Amino acid sequence: MTAFEKIALHTSMLRTEERTCGTIYMVDENGKRLLIDSGDGQVALGFTPDICILTHGHFDHSSGVKPDWKQVLLHPAEFRFAGPHIKIPKNAEKNPMTPLMFGSHELSFFHTPGHTDGSVCILDKKTGLLFSGDTKFADGIYGRTDIGGSDEEMEASLALIGKIPYKLLCPGHGNLEEKK
Ligand SMILES: [Zn+2]
Question: What is the CATH number of domain 5-178?
Answer without folding.
Answer: 3.60.15.10
